[in-house]
Amino acid sequence: MKNLLEQNAATNAKVSDAIAELQASINKQQQDRSGQGDQMSGQIQALNDTMDELKVRLAKLSKQIEDMQAAQQSMRRSRRKRSSNSRRSRKRLRPTCSTTTPCATTTAENRRATQNSTTTSSSIPTPTCRNSYFYLAEIQFKAGDFQNAVTNYELVLQNFPG
Asked: Domain of 58?
């Protein structure tokens, strides 16, 4: 009986040790899971912060794209306006052929000359007139008014071939 009691006590001690080890293992797993939960919570928060930052960046990009589209539309409108104005002013840009008119020498005089010049039906083509068409086209070309420059170069070729 004494032997049985000793065996029973030894078995109880082993079972108690196994239960203690099991309890320690369960506690460790719970702590690991708790740490993993905290870690996941931190990662989710970081993802939310990143998403908010991306939303702000997308909003800025959208604003920049809208601004660029508005600028493009504005440029298109100004081009249309300039092209319609240049079509209207083609008749005004033909110079008067006169040998008594002095040459315009300054930029302001060049602008006035190109804006106020008109061709009359009684004009007689002369070498001076050919030169005036050519130099008027040169002035317009250098000023960046390519459309009107081409028109005046064409007038030189049409009225003074060779």
From this structure: 1-88
Kindly state the tokens that stand for 28: 């460790």
Helix H or strand E encompassing 120: none
How many angstroms separate the CA atoms of 104 and 110, rounded? 6
The CA-CA-CA angle for residues 116, 119, 121, to 5°, reads 150
65, 1: one domain: yes
Q: 56 and 77 share a domain?
A: yes
Token pair 């997308």: residue: 58
Reported as type and span, the H/E element at residue 26 is: helix 2-89
Using one digit for the tens of pLDDT, what is the confidence trace for 80-133? 887 776 665 555 445 445 444 444 444 555 555 556 554 443 455 566 676 788
Q: How confident is the model at residue 63 (pLDDT cuts 50, 70, 90)?
A: very high
* Domain identity same for 77 and 120: no
* 43 and 72 housed in the same domain: yes
Q: Both 3 and 76 in a single domain?
A: yes
User: What is the per-residue pLDDT for 152?
Assistant: 86
The pTM of the full predicted model, rounded to 2 decimals, is 0.34
